[in-house]
Amino acid sequence: MAGPGEARRPPGTYKPDMTIAPWARLGARLYDPFLALSERRGMAERRGALLASARGRVLEIGAGTGLNLTHYPAEVDELVLTEPEPPMRARLERRVARSGRAATVLAAPAEALPFADGTFDTVVSTLVLCTVADAPAALRELRRVLAPGGRLLFIEHVRGGARLARRQDRLAGPWRAFAQGCRCNQPTLELLERQGLDVVELARASWRGMPSVVRPLVIGHAA
Ligand SMILES: C[S@@+](CC[C@H](N)C(=O)[O-])C[C@H]1O[C@@H](n2cnc3c(N)ncnc32)[C@H](O)[C@@H]1O
Fold this sequence. Notes:
This protein has five helices and seven strands; from the N terminus they run H-E-E-H-E-E-H-E-H-H-E-E.
């Protein structure tokens, strides 16, 4: 589905928007191949395990190319996928169309979600909070749109232990330029807690098949 204010394209007629930075287009094209090895080495399974508990009205922020799509239980009442970057969103729209799943794709940033308070039972963030421009603002929005009793389900890569953190700090600039805004040294779990979220950490894991600076993963839910 096209985002608000966007023209709908007939299926199969995707045409790249030449006003979009070539790096962003290239990043979107390379995203799935870059993650393919790590998906095979456990990430796809982790997505499935986490999303099995999605229920009710579900919102995913920064849905990217839609790697979570096949992992949602068929029983969820509604699935809304937001993705602000046009080249990623174009791929997401095509994946949704191919999947035959009923899902709405919207062009909203996590910092300004176009939904009323308490709209969703489940909010999903996988590998997104490292990249949003204003993580505290995004977390306030996630809390706002969660219904009472609702949960945020997350898989995020985080700041490592002392030795790795030093390398993450050293490489934060080049990594951010390469990975389109991703902060490899961000203490995301602490950010969640600082926003008053009650975090249940389900697992720590290593994002195998990816560069060391983004390998430490935290998987959990929060309310
Ligand atoms: C590393 S990708 C993760 C994609 C997907 N969630 C996954 O698990 O594969 C980060 C995504 O966050 C999106 N993003 C960047 N800034 C954002 C923002 N302010 N709000 C929501 N998403 C954002 C990017 O466009 C990109 O699709």
